[in-house]
Design a protein that fits this description.
By secondary structure, this protein is of the alpha+beta class. 46% of the residues lie in helices and 13% in strands. It is globular, with a radius of gyration of 12 Å.
Length: 78
C-alpha cells in the first residue's frame, strides 16, 4: 500500500466513531477495506499493529493504527 494513496483513502473512510480511542475488528476491517477474517489473519502474522486485550476482547489503539497507515503499513516487529 502506498502512503500517498492511503492518505486520501483514509480521509474518505468514516469510522463508526472517529473519536474512539480503541477500535474493534469491524472498524479495523472497514478502515483497511478487508474482511474481519483478513484482519485476524494479518494480526496473527504480525502484518498490522498488535491489538490490546481487555478481558476476552481485542481492540486496536486508533492512533497507532492511523500512524501505521501514514507510515505506509510496514510489517510490525515481532
Amino acid at each position: 500500500m502506498g502512503s500517498a494513496g492511503n492518505a486520501l483513502a483514509v480521509d474518505r473512510i468514516k469510522l463508526p466513531d472517529s473519536d474512539a480511542v480503541l477500535i474493534g475488528v469491524g472498524a479495523m476491517a472497514e478502515l483497511l477495506q478487508v474482511s474481519e477474517r483478513t484482519v485476524w489473519r494479518l494480526a496473527s502474522s504480525g502484518e498490522v499493529p498488535r491489538p490490546v486485550e481487555i478481558g476476552r476482547s481485542r481492540r486496536w489503539v486508533r492512533a497507532t493504527v492511523m500512524s501505521w497507515i501514514d507510515q505506509g503499513c510496514p510489517k510490525q516487529p515481532q
